[in-house]
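Teaching assistant's notes for section 4

Start the section by putting this record on the projector. Ask students to predict, before seeing the second block, whether Carrier domain-containing protein will look compact or extended. Collect guesses on the board.
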Amino acid sequence: MSEKTETIEVGAKNTSIIEMENWLINKVAEHLSMDSEKISVHEELVLYGLDSMSAIMISGDIEEKLNIELPSTTLWDYPTIDAIMSFLKDKI
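Reveal the predicted structure now:
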C-alpha cells in the first residue's frame, strides 16, 4: 500500500486516501470473492478475474460512496487500484 495521507471528501465527511484505498481493496475483494490481503494496488484487476459485470458493480459502489458519476469504463481505463485512486483524487 502506498503511504498517502491526503484527504478526500466522501459524502459529508473527510476520509484519507489510505482509508479510501482500503475500502476499494475490500470492495474489489468482495466482488471477486477473494481475500483482500492478496490484492496488490499495483496489479491489474483483470489478473484477479475482474469481468465487465464486476467492473460495473464496483464503479457503482464508488459512485455511491463518493456521490459522483463515473464513466462505465473507469475500471478498464484505470486498471489498477493505484490508478483508480489517482483518478479519483483528481475527480474530487
